[in-house]
Specification:
It contains 1 helix and 4 strands; from the N terminus they run ββββα. By secondary structure, it is α+β, with helices and mostly antiparallel strands. The two termini are 28 Å apart.
């Protein structure tokens, strides 16, 4: 398998989430076969559907963009700290 292959378990959970209102930056840590850990960040917007159930989407509207940018900025700081061994994995 190449270094880009994910060898994580299927029930992996995010190592951290940053939430600002309806916007989240979900941070995943993936351990490669080489032993190196790489982080991926997924922007998510949460909302309630017509039945009142919570849902998530990756589609962001105009009013979400600056909040998402701030969440991604905070996620960047977390990932940099994690890669330097300073972030508390939660």
């Amino acid at each position: 398998m190449s270094e880009q292959g994910n060898i994580a378990s299927p029930k992996q959970r995010p190592v951290h989430e940053i939430r600002l209102g309806a916007i989240k930056a979900v941070i995943w840590a993936n351990k490669l076969e080489s032993g190196r850990v790489v982080h991926n960040v997924v922007p998510v917007r949460v909302y309630r559907d017509e039945q009142g159930n919570w849902r998530e989407t990756h589609s962001l509207g105009r009013n979400d963009l600056l909040v998402a940018a701030k969440a991604l900025d905070l996620a960047h700081s977390y990932v940099v700290d994690a890669e330097q061994g300073h972030a508390a994995e939660s």
